[in-house]
Amino acid sequence: MPILDHLPGRTLTAHGRDYLFCSGTSYLGMARNVAFAELVQEGMRHYGTNYSSSRHSNLQLAVFEEAEQLLRAQTGAEAALTVSSGYLAGQMAVRALANHGRFEYAPGTHPAAWLAEHPAATTNPPSYDAWSRQLLDNLASTPPEPVVIVSNSLDPLRVKRYDFRWTAELPTDRPITLLLDDSHGFGVIGQDGAGIISEIQVPASVRLVVVSSLGKACGVPGGVVLSDETFVAQLRRSGFFGASSPVVPAYLYAFVRATALYRQARAQLQANLAQFAEGVEALSLFDFAQDFPVFYTPLNALAAYLEQHNVLISSFVYPTPADPCITRVVLSSLHIPDDIALVAELVRSFAEHLQQG
User: What keywords sit in the KW lines (predicted)?
Assistant: First the structure.
C-alpha cells in the first residue's frame, strides 16, 4: 500500500515508480482539474479558506443560496440543502425520519443512511430485485402503517445499476418515505449528471428524499439533501444543521461556476467508459453498468498483475477487515485514450495468462 505525499491524478509516483492510477471516486477528475482549482482559488479570494460559523448565524453568505438554487434547477427537486459532508447529509435526513415509520433497508445500504449502528443483517442477503419484490409483497399484505424505505441508488462495489421500476408500484394507502443515497451516482448518472432523482418515479403520496456526497464526481467537500420544501425546512430547523459547519464557501463558489467543466468532464468520462468496455467486453471478466465508470471483477489477482505493469487499480477489503476484497478498475475523466488502450491490453494479457494456467 503506497503512502503518498501528493494526491493522485491520472498518474502517481510511489517508491520511485510512476503508475497509471485507476482507482478512487473522483469520477469527473475535479480533484485534479486545473480549471476547477482556479475557480476554488478565486472563491477563496472572495470567501476566505473556511467559514466555520453556523448557517443560522446573523451573517449570511450568498453563495449557499446560489448553490442550492442551482442544485434545484439541475435536479428538478423542490428544495436542496447543502451540508459539510455526504455522511452528514445522510445522517441528518435519516434521523429526521426516525419517527416516520418502520424502516426497511435494501441490501448493501451505505452506513451514512443507517439509523442505528447497523441495520439488522442477514446471513445470505437477497439480490436487490428479490428484495424489492418481497418488499412490495409485504407492503401489500400488511396493515397500512407508515414506512421509511432506505436504499443506495446503485451498487458501486460490484457495479449494479438497480432497476427502480418497483418504486412506481408503492402503495398509496399509508405514509411512505423513500430515501436514496446517490453519492456515487450524482454528477455521473441521470440527465446531465442530475443523478437518480432524474430517473426515479414514485406515486404522488410517497415522499422522496435523495442524499448525496458532493465530494466524488463534483469535487466539492460537502453533501446535499434533495426533497420537498416541507422536509428541507424541517432539516433547516434541526440541531444537526444548525450546529454543524457548512460547506467551505469557496468550493460552492467554484461549483456554481463550473457547469461547463462538469459537462465537458462527463463527456470525456463516457468516451473513456465506452472505449474500455469495448476493449474488454469479450473477456467476460467484469461486471459493469451503463454510464458508470467502474468495472468490478471477482479475480483479485488482476490487481497484482496490473501493479507489476505500473497500473494501480482499486483492490481492498470493504467495509470492514472481515469483509471480502473488492477489486475494480475505476476510470476518470482525467484518463486519455492511450491510458484506456493500455489498461485494456493489459487486461487481455491477464486473461490469456489465466487460460494458459
Answer: Pyridoxal phosphate, Transferase
Residue 153 · residue 180 · CB < 8 Å: yes
What residues are paired with 325 via a beta bridge? 317
* Mean of the per-residue pLDDT values of the chain: 94
Does the reported pTM lie above 0.90? yes
Q: Which of 175, 197, 174 is closest to 185 using CA atoms?
A: 197
- 211 CB neighbour count, 10 Å cutoff: 31
The architecture that CATH gives domain 11-32+265-355 is Alpha-Beta Complex (3.90)
CATH class of 51-247: alpha beta
206-227: pLDDT as tens digits: 999 999 999 999 999 999 999 9
Cβ atoms of residues 96 and 234 within 8 Å:
yes
Q: Which residue has the higher pLDDT, 320 or 281?
A: 281
CATH 3.40.640.10 intervals, the chain: 51-247
The verdict on whether omega for the bond into residue 321 sits within 30 degrees of 0, i.e. cis, is no
The number of residues making up the chain comes to 357
Positions of CATH 3.90.1150.10 in the chain: 11-32+265-355
Over range 138-166, report the average pLDDT: 96
